[in-house]
Request: fold
Amino acid sequence: MAVNSAISFSSLLKKVSYLSRSEKSGLKRAFEFCHTAHIGQFRKTGEPYFTHPLAVADICADWQLDSEALTAALLHDTVEDTNISLNQISNKFGGVVTELVDGLSKIDQLVFKNYEEAAAANFRKMLLATAADIRVILIKLADRLHNMRTLDALSKDQKKRISKE
Reply:
């Protein structure tokens, strides 16, 4: 499946017609924050890094997730991949978005001895996160889906590893 690199923030806004004007405004702030935080970072596809969180938010919008989930989708990699802290996320976007971003970060920070252990532990971690907020799982699934759509830029070994995951 080819990547839709034509996703733009304006196309995302059209897709979220179910959100209020205020929620769309908050989403715009999150997009601008994400864009600024990832300046100078690029994906293996060569695209600017912010296109990934934008694509994840776009997938979440297809599922009609709420504004907090869409905001977290835009911010999901800022704590891990930039110098942005959870405290900064909290100050700008509130506690609920921060909890979603933190839940997503914790899933990615797990380290395992082998693939089988990783798969089982990751599944357990996702189930536990679901108990707190199912939106963490939905955003993570959108993240993985977009990563799968952009596998062409990776080596054969990386493609296999990610596909198994």
Q: What stands out?
A: The radius of gyration is 15 Å. The CA atoms of residues 16 and 66 lie 9 Å apart.
